[in-house]
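Our preliminary data section would be incomplete without showing what the modeling component actually yields. Below, a chain of 155 amino acids is followed by its predicted structure, encoded as tokens that our downstream tools consume directly.
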Amino acid sequence: MLLVVLTILSFVFLGKNEPVRERTIAVDDCSIMQDTCHVKMGDLFSLSFDVSPKGLPPTKEAIVTVKSSSAQVNKIEVVFLAVDLDYSPPKIRLNKVSDKKFNGRIFLSLCTLKKTKWIANLMVYTDTDIWKIIFPFVHSGDRYNAINPSLSINK
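Predicted structure:
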């Protein structure tokens, strides 16, 4: 009986996990409308984020693919946000294809795709961290601040 109590107490006091840390990365040197974007996640691992077909042509479903250099990623979700539009965008959970690859399908409100500023928030979940990575859409030469997308830089 004493052994059981000591085992339970040691698990409770010594087996506590570290709290999950939340980290944010704002990508400002790559447009998911035009390129596959690559992000280094500190010293831990890196990701590539791709949306195809490029440019998200009207009336076409797009495929989102995320590849990780490490198998430590548990789950990935993406939310496509139209800046300055009042709506609640759906959160898309990507399917785990392999230890290092996730994908999913999206269909954006294309009537507003060229008329508003868009960002993609990628949420990457590991055992110790939740990474929020903000990717801009840049179209027709438009530029805007990925951290505060409502500030237009068109000058």
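Residues 140-155 have pLDDT under 50 and may be disordered. The radius of gyration is 19 Å. Preliminary results of this kind motivate Aim 1 of the renewal.
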